[in-house]
Specification:
The complex is a heterodimer of chains A (about 375) and B (about 350). In chain A, helix 5 runs parallel beside helix 7 and helix 7 runs parallel beside helix 8. Chain A starts with 7 loop residues before the first helix and ends with a helix. Among the domains of chain A are: about 150 residues, Rossmann fold (3-Layer(aba) Sandwich), CATH 3.40.50.300; about 70 residues, no CATH class. In chain A, the strands form 2 sheets. Chain A has an 8-stranded mixed β-sheet, with helices on both faces. A 4-stranded antiparallel β-sheet of chain A has the order 2-1-4-5. Chain A is about 30% helix and about 20% strand. Chain B is α/β, with parallel strands linked by helices and about 350 residues long. Chain B is about 35% helix and about 25% strand. The longest helix of chain B is centred in the middle third of the chain and has 18 residues. Chain B is globular, with a radius of gyration of 21 Å. The two termini of chain B are about 35 Å apart. Classes of the chains: A alpha/beta (about 375), B alpha/beta (about 350). Chains A and B meet through helix 8, helix 9 and helix 11 of A and helix 7, helix 8, helix 9, helix 10 and helix 11 of B.
Chain lengths: ~375, ~350
């Protein structure tokens, strides 16, 4: 983590990593992933002229290189948790493919495949079995998955607890005897017990007090360094994301709308939604509040996704083309690691830009006049 | 504790407030001698972690404590009237026209089977003697003021038909409906997304500025306090440990607990390599530690910290701390500043 705001160096190294994949390709690759939920009866919905299918994730392509910490950010209802659950195999996708180590994961995963992606949930109070001791929780897992031999279960359990900063006495304690932060440590130990290649953490610190959050964030950072863990962090807290992650994917209404290296995204957000999201973060500095909010309006219901660009109903620079054409996630010419799904993200209208970072082919330098003709 | 140093009588004066909760393990001293002043037109932030007593303080001010909790000592003076001495009937005359509250979760604070417009119109009918038509007019005007689009149509909607942000706007409209001089906010934006939080905070700040309403704003989120409040009181284990202007307390924290809070949260504009957590856990409020309640977790703790509980004392105009050795905090900030 650099402390410089942009760092040509930071951006360059991140780009370099994206350009030079390890010999065996990215760890995880999802293509055109979609998950929808059916709400009630289709017949009744039709009678009431309501939609009954909720498209939570609507065609997402995502690549996570080995060893990277990728953040998935977005508002509630943007589909980030559903996407994470689909990747972890907890939610069956409608369509799309998930490849792990180049191998397509089937809809029903084998135990070995399940082990490779593990999850840490938001609420450590409801995600741990209250009737098992911490030792019991871990032993059960280790026995079912045959991670280590029967004789090594005890010592491996102690090793895991040590790894997450819990003492040996934790083995015989019940989750209720722990504070929130300690429970989250147990949850992390449980996820690590199966030696996963990808750890998916869904808002791992949101339920914790600020001073405890720091310990869990530091732990995740240490574990990454020690174990070379690949991390997918879902969070609405951009400060946490900036602290922990190499790359950020911003989600809005079931789609990725901007993806890029953390520092690039913070320095030069290209999508108007990302720009608003960054501006909306409350800061310790004492800027007097003006009256105009960073992003106005409410996000539309995922049941009634606007035609064209999904963000246009709240977008300060929306143009007629945004209603007609759904922008595709497209990489910047100058920085292939940075992509955005906005007609004007790199095209420079509005406001006009002179850097000429137009997109290849159809996008070019779109302006409203051209778009209408 | 004269943090405010106001010339005139403050609007709200909380004086040595004690709230105790009966539990199986003993008496929990949830609020243990809190004094606070809120000048007219100012916003005071009350910050602390869960269990620090900040919400209990707020509930005690409004007289809506849970049944097992009660005020055992202290005064809550609003415009010179001690709210702690009033019975429920008298309190109902105060709640609404004098003092209103905005809760964290609007869905559980709003009546789910009553139309939103009627809920906003209720206060003006009861307290301002308006008839149905007048109060409906007033409700529509309030809905417009808090930025609910299409108020004529939304007037007869139910709370479940609103989004979280819109529900909180309804809560704000209800709070404003009888033109109170003080609004109490209990984590009003914690359940909201960051873009919606930004909208609601700006709305609150603007409305309070326009109407001269005072705020007591409870939150665990320091940056949120910085957006809204003029003054800041930091609570730990049932006590206020530091008090002063928001800018002063956040840039020159003079209590190790405040310093810990400021440093444990990642700063979105200045990422650092690792976060400094506060070691340990908050103490039991049944048997709080002797001396300074923070000393078991404090790296600056000395012999005298374990002996007597230090009171808040002024160290600068309007800046008070309950730390005996606050100079250590300043030293640490100075060395850190030099490192940057």
């Amino acid at each position: 983590m650099t402390t410089q705001p942009v760092g040509g160096a930071a951006a360059a190294s991140a780009t370099g990593a994206a350009l030079l994949p390890p010999p065996d390709g990215p760890l995880l690759e999802a293509t055109d992933l979609a998950v929808s939920f059916s709400l009630g009866s289709a017949l009744i919905a039709r009678m009431r002229h309501q939609a009954h299918v909720l498209h939570a994730v609507d065609g997402v392509d995502l690549t996570i290189p080995r060893g990277e910490a990728l953040a998935l950010v977005g508002e509630s209802g943007s589909g980030k948790s559903t996407l994470a659950r689909a990747l972890a195999g907890l939610q069956r996708p409608d369509r799309g493919q998930i490849r792990l180590d180049g191998k397509v994961l089937p809809a029903r995963r084998s135990r070995a495949d399940q082990r490779k992606i593990q999850m840490v949930f938001q609420d450590p109070y409801s995600s741990l079995n209250p009737r098992l001791t911490v030792g019991g929780i871990l032993h059960e897992l280790l026995r079912v998955h045959h991670v280590v031999g029967r004789s090594e279960v005890e010592s491996y359990t102690r090793e895991l607890l040590g790894l997450v900063g819990l003492g040996e006495e934790a083995v015989n304690a019940y989750p209720r005897q722990f504070s929130g932060g300690q429970r989250q440590r147990v949850a992390i130990a449980r996820a690590l017990a199966l030696r996963p290649e990808l750890l998916v953490a869904d808002e791992p610190v949101s339920a914790l007090d600020v001073s405890v959050q720091a310990t869990i964030l530091n732990l995740l950072q240490d574990l990454r360094a020690e174990l070379g863990l690949t991390l997918l962090l879902i969070s609405h807290n951009l400060a946490v994301v900036r602290h922990l992650c190499d790359r950020i994917a911003v989600m809005y209404l079931g789609r990725l709308i901007e993806v890029g290296p953390t520092e690039t995204l913070f320095a030069k957000p290209r999508h108007p939604y990302t720009q608003g999201l960054l501006a909306a973060i409350p800061r310790l500095s004492f800027t007097a509040d003006g009256d105009a909010p960073a992003v106005s309006g409410d996000p539309p219901s995922p049941l009634r996704i606007p035609a064209g660009c999904r963000f246009r109903t709240r977008c300060p620079i929306a143009q007629p083309i945004c209603e007609q054409e759904d922008p595709v996630l497209t990489a910047s010419n100058s920085d292939p690691a940075h992509s955005a799904a906005c007609h004007f993200a790199f095209a420079g209208v509005p406001p006009p830009r002179s850097d000429g970072a137009g997109r290849a082919g159809e996008a070019g330098q779109i302006n409203p006049e051209e778009a209408r003709s | 504790m004269n943090g405010g140093q106001s010339m005139s009588q403050p609007l709200l004066q909380v004086d040595d407030l004690h709230v105790q909760i009966a539990s199986r393990r003993g008496t929990v001293r949830a609020v243990d001698g809190v004094s606070l002043e809120v000048p007219a037109g100012e916003a005071v932030g009350l910050v602390g972690e869960s269990g620090s007593g900040k919400s209990m303080t707020l509930r005690a001010i409004l007289g809506v404590l849970p049944p097992e909790a009660r005020v055992t000592a202290g005064r809550v003076l609003l415009d010179g009237v001690d709210l702690a001495q009033l019975d429920n009937r008298q309190l109902n005359q105060v709640r609404g026209p004098k003092i209103a509250m905005i809760f964290q979760e609007p869905m559980s604070a709003l009546n789910p089977v009553m139309r939103v417009g009627s809920q906003i119109a209720e206060g003006p009918q009861v307290h301002m003697g308006m008839n149905r038509r007048q109060s409906a007019e007033r409700a529509l005007e309030l809905m417009r003021r808090v930025g609910i689009p299409d108020p004529e149509r939304r007037f007869s909607s139910f709370p479940h038909e609103f989004s979280g942000g819109m529900r909180q706007r309804v809560m704000i409209a209800i709070a404003l409906s009888c033109e109170p001089s003080l609004i109490l906010c209990d984590e009003p934006t914690t359940a909201l997304d960051v873009t919606i939080q930004d909208q609601i905070l700006r709305l609150l700040v603007r409305l309070c500025r326009e109407s001269g309403t005072s705020l007591v704003f409870v939150t665990h989120d320091l940056p949120v306090v910085a957006q809204v409040c003029h003054q800041l009181a930091v609570m730990y284990a049932g006590r206020i440990v530091e008090h002063g202007s928001v800018e002063e307390v956040l840039t020159r924290p003079c209590h190790p607990y405040t310093l810990g809070l400021v440093r444990s949260a990642p700063d979105v504009d200045h990422p650092r390599s690792s976060l400094v957590a506060i070691p340990g856990a908050p103490p039991s409020l049944v048997h709080p530690p002797a001396g300074c309640r923070f000393h078991p977790r404090c790296k600056f703790a000395e012999e005298d910290c374990t002996v007597s509980d230090p009171p808040l004392r002024l160290i600068d105009a309007g800046h008070a701390t309950a730390c005996l050795h606050f100079e250590h905090c300043l030293d640490e900030l100075r060395t850190e500043g030099a490192d940057r």
